[in-house]
TrEMBL record:
Swiss-Prot/TrEMBL keywords: Hydrolase, Membrane, Transmembrane, Transmembrane helix
Residues in BD-FAE-like domain copies: 136-339
Pfam families found in the cross-reference section: BD-FAE
InterPro entries registered for this protein in UniProt: AB_hydrolase_fold, BD-FAE-like_dom, GDXG_lipolytic_enzyme
Protein name (record): Alpha/beta hydrolase
Any GO MF annotation of the entry: hydrolase activity
Record keyword Cell wall biogenesis/degradation present: no
Parts of the chain that traverse the membrane: 7-26, 46-64, 76-95
């Protein structure tokens, strides 16, 4: 091989192999925390693209190795081969999970990206509290002739940030005939602890939809609560609270209990989050202090109410929890603990864990991880007769 081609090849390949090696080390070792977190996020969003890129580098390394059998070309070829096998293992693990739960995946779809687009919508005020108006956006179904099932969507943001425009995947619902109500709610600050207020606001949104059911042409007897991260925690808190009677809407209109709840990587055990802060996961205690008002020692009764594991009993709405196995924001131990107790009490909680999944693993809906989420939701909704089977 001519020297003037060999040098650029080495300059290209050596850093690329090192970068991919570092990424895959983080993927499998999940250490240190930030490397594990960022590589988990990359794998969650782009695992298929990563495989293709490594395959291209492997092909290039093979061609150069055939032309010039030197130590460097040999090491680069074998090293890239190891990286390719490791990435195949990541993909195979995702497919094995999907196959186990009968969730169809498309590799070609995973080669594209879909981070959502905000479609046509209408905005309404559903609550005025302490002089501030709280809004919701309404996304109507593509075919709006018949009554649709309402989905109240609640955003994340650690209870202290975020807005109703954050998650723009409404089209998944509207294409399937649902009407989405994407809501804002009171956010916690140093001076305002919204551990009750936020869930009460979600219940008020339910009351608003009930009051305006005819206007929006929705069937509130089949209402669904859906949220991610803090929003996932709030939809469970509000949904179970409406059944248990410990949620009070800021409205005279009686809300309905949800037919189903879908929570994506929700915080369901604040006590576990507090104890695990900084131990392989992000320290979210400042968020907890703003939201709850202090530590579990200072406010044991508040934490007891917020820990969903203490609210479980028969008769609760059908619930689906989807979370990533590598979540560095909301410890997965809380969800697993909840699931174990739910199984003992025979509470209807369906659970889907996504391998290598980081917090916000599903932001790219077309990724393999994203497809697992949406397919699990479709299976859950179909099973509970909230969506037609295809």
């Amino acid at each position: 091989m001519k020297k003037f081609l060999y040098i650029p090849y080495a300059i290209l390949m050596v850093p690329a192999v090192l970068v991919f090696a570092l990424m895959l080390f983080g993927t499998f070792a999940n250490w240190p925390m930030y490397l594990g977190g960022y590589t988990g996020l990359l794998q969650s969003h782009y695992s298929a693209q990563i495989l293709v890129v490594i395959f291209v580098f492997l092909g290039l390394a093979f061609l150069v190795f055939r032309k010039k059998s030197a130590k460097l070309t040999k090491y680069l070829f074998y090293g890239t081969g190891v990286l390719f096998v490791a990435q195949v293992f990541v993909i195979a693990t995702l497919y094995r999970t999907a196959f186990k739960h009968q969730l169809p995946l498309s590799f070609t779809q995973a080669l594209s990206t879909n981070f959502g687009v905000q479609g046509p919508h209408e905005t309404f005020s559903y609550l005025e509290l302490d002089g501030k108006k709280y809004l919701l956006d309404v996304y109507r179904p593509f075919e709006g002739a018949k009554r649709s099932i309402p989905v109240i969507q609640v955003h994340g943001g650690g209870y202290v940030a975020g807005s109703r425009t954050d998650d723009r995947h409404h089209e998944w619902f509207t294409k399937k005939g649902f009407t989405v109500f994407d809501v804002d709610y009171p956010l916690a600050t140093d001076d305002m602890h919204t551990w009750e207020t936020a869930a009460n606001a979600i219940a008020t949104a339910v009351s608003y939809v009930v009051e305006n059911a005819q206007k929006f042409n929705v069937d509130t007897s089949k209402l669904i609560l859906y949220g991610g991260s803090a929003g996932g925690g709030l939809v469970i808190q509000a949904g179970y609270g409406l059944v248990n009677g410990n949620i009070t809407p800021y409205s005279q209109i009686e809300p309905v209990s949800p037919k189903a709840i879908i929570a994506i990587f929700p915080p369901v055990d604040f006590t576990v989050m507090w104890k695990m802060a900084g131990q392989g996961v992000l320290d979210m205690r400042s968020n907890a202090i703003q939201f709850v008002g202090g530590s579990p020692d200072e406010f044991p009764e508040r934490y007891k109410r917020l820990d969903i594991v203490n609210s479980l009993h028969k008769g609760l709405p059908e619930t689906l929890i989807i979370t990533g196995s590598r979540d560095h924001v909301v410890p997965i131990e809380g969800a697993r603990k909840l699931l174990r107790k739910a199984e003992r009490l025979q509470v209807p909680i369906s659970y889907q864990e996504v391998p290598f999944g980081e917090h916000s693993f599903e932001a790219n809906a077309n990724s393999l991880s994203g497809q697992i989420k949406w397919q699990a939701m479709e299976k859950f909704l179909t099973k509970n007769k909230l969506m037609d089977s295809h």
